[in-house]
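Final report, closing paragraph on structural work. Over the funding period we assembled a curated collection of sequence-structure pairs, and we close with a single example.
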Amino acid sequence: MSALMPTYAPADLAFEKGEGVYLYTADGRRFLDFCAGIAVNCMGHAHPHLVEALTEQAKKVWHVSNLYTIPGQIKLADRLAAASFADRVFFSNSGAEALEGSIKIARKYQKDHGHPERFRIIACENAFHGRTLATIAAAGQAKLLEGFTPVVDGFSQVAFGNLNEMRAAVTDETAAILVEPVQGEGGLRAAPEGYLQGLRDLCDEFGLLLMFDEVQCGMGRTGKLFAHEWAGVTPDVVATAKGIGGGFPLGAILTTEAAGVLGVGNHGTTYGGNPLAMAVGGAVLDELLKDGFLDHVVAVGETLGRALSALVEKFPTVFVEARGQGLMQGIKLVEGIVNRDFKTELEGAGLLVAPAGDNVLRLLPPLIIEDSHVTEAIAIFETVAARHI
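Its predicted structure, as stored:
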């Protein structure tokens, strides 16, 4: 028996190499990757520009710690700020760390403004914000909290998309609102029209911070650099990760100047923002900000959305509905067909996808896919779906 702690139940698949949108096992089997490491490998596998950036930096220096100036941090932070709402950036290693830092920001912001009693954060049902004690408390899902009581205090949840419930939940202790513009693990639910603006108005009215979790839906996944941009809303804090490093561990907290309250001694990280991560993160941003790149994501995303809707029409006894935005989409299976089982069947036919809540399968392909890859993926879906008629 392996000494590896069994925190996952992985598929019996091990990949030896990847090229573009495909992964290969040691025995040469090829798989179309519409999982992308759960929305991480945004530029696919072995992208030449990312490989070159990592290789060149690896020849120089890997790690020095934040006791010293890291020029790559300054450069990448300035580029992210210039391309977004942000004035300040903090680099972490993961999305969970970025969310933990965001929670600290909410509390410190209110204390700095004379309201230490404001410490509670309102989040949404079916959300996912990470696996730390604080982030599972923020999500509030029973399956995440099981075995980890007492639950960290300071969080409550309301229905996603319901402004009336959100308003009713605000108290004198509320510090911030934390929402995913598109819920990922929760079943590929995009915020309804007007919802994010309504949250902004609510936060302005009560002096709260508006914080978006864009760990999964950010970094071009919906066709904008950040998903909230579709609503024309300016948040105070955004936590992002996954695609920002294209497969190299990297996360970030982006804030306005007013919300940039973390100073010397308030927060820190040993590995976060190391030279390797900054090199790869810069290479990812090079690609994302190329003329026409995000337009391509929108166009292929529309192709994928239409194809998934057509699947629902063609196989109404298998699929219930298509959901999502850009290249963050999902398809809900009928009761009686379990998404994880269907996922295993797709893998057997050469397609990788990810499960999500509400019996949904997530399609999170690299942002570099073409319409031909959508056609290939849908053909595999049809083959597997036909077995369930």
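The mean pLDDT is 97. DSSP finds twelve helices and 17 strands in the chain. We thank the funder for supporting this effort.
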